[in-house]
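14628_t:CDS:1
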Amino acid sequence: MVYVLTAWLHGNQPSRIKQYPYPTANFWSSILSLLPIFFQHQLCKWLTARILTGAVSAVYFPDHFLQGASLAARQVCAALSTPVDRDDLQLMLTTRFYDRMINELDKLESEKSKVTIDIPKIYGINVRDIWVTLGPRKAYSEKNREYRILKWMTLTLAIRKTQDDNMNESRAKIAKSFSDGINFKVDVEIDAEVTYTLKSAKDEILIDDRSRRPVLFRFESPHFEPTDRIYYKVSSDLIEEPPVNWNWRVGDIDYLLEIEDLENEAREEKDLSQLED
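Structure:
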């Protein structure tokens, strides 16, 4: 039995998430929570785009960013094809996504199977979502006990826990979250012609798929701490410091890791509710 690269969708396989379950929250305002999900999502998308554009400039995002994303998507597909260039792949992918993909590619190569993935033609490209995570990196570790994590649509904030939860205190904590750190994830949807070929060790063609379908690439920035690292700074002698290196990397394709995270969160919530009962 030949191992198949399960991480890559091909042919008529359905999308992993047909309708994303964006989290709603009532910590912003009671009026906002009354809005339909569609309008909340559009409002959040506008807000996160403003935050990202303010950091990188309207000249770069979205047009230049999408041009780079289309080129990067093709390069990632080539790097995922065997024989795998691990060094190139490590530079292109986040650590977590690299570990997941290389595990599957190692299984293929151990059987001397060959896989080729290519995007010969792109018909269109657009930004589906912009995820903004605010607060220090330590707030999102498994050991976190100091911060509450608040989520609304594609915006996540880490708020330090305190005894005082009045309105002024909450505003101050939100402002502190904005300044403590920031991370961006941009989901780019590419309408593309995709080819996926899998051959056995004997060079027999096991899968030869060519289809036009939307492919979703998630590009992730580093987690900047503090947030003002992402902005241009002018020193006292008026010499402008070089901008920070954003170093975007692909952190997911077609919600491979995202669906696993959502399923894990659902299980944890279910276990927690059972304990409370």
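The CA atoms of residues 40 and 245 lie 32 Å apart.
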